[in-house]
Model the fold of this input.
Amino acid sequence: MTGAPDQNYNVFSSQALIDVVGDVTDEALKASRMKQFIGVLGGRLMNWGQRKSLFPLHLGIKCCALEMAAAGGSRFDAERFGVFFRSTPRQCDVLIVNGPISKKFADPLVRLWEQMPEPKWCIAMGECAISGGPYYQSYNILEGVETIIPVDVYIPGCPPRPEALIDGFAKLRQKIMRIGTKPSTDRAGDAPIIVGDD
Ligand code: SF4
Done:
């Protein structure tokens, strides 16, 4: 008997065939611009799917959180619009900051943000999250979440009503359709949206 006893020629041949077919298919797709077309179409489909299934983190900081809870309740029912609150950052793509951020809470909030997978978005809900609100220039409250996390949508009010939060999600959807599912670190030049500013 000749050759190495362990050599599996079937596996080797299958892999070689896959490599050759893969290369030929790749070249053919490139030559016909089909690859570009599939990329664009795939991107559009991803954006479409993403905007229809936003998973905000179930995080309540202060009184604005009650309005957020009302938005998820039976009267306003944010789930009608594909907004599903989840309780772990690893399953979420939207962070709603709904209260003042004390300097002690800044690090845990950034940790939650960093535990969320890309692409992800941040909504600043209420005056406290936007600028510190009644605690503006207080010794222990940050002057807005923007100082630690990039914000995509601002919802002014003290507190904003649940309809305003639902409107904020609608504006976020339009933004996702416009800029695509870019990671949050690539959106530096993109101006945030202010709900009620149109
Ligand atoms: S903006 Fe007003 S309602 Fe919202 S957390 Fe601050 S004080 Fe409370």
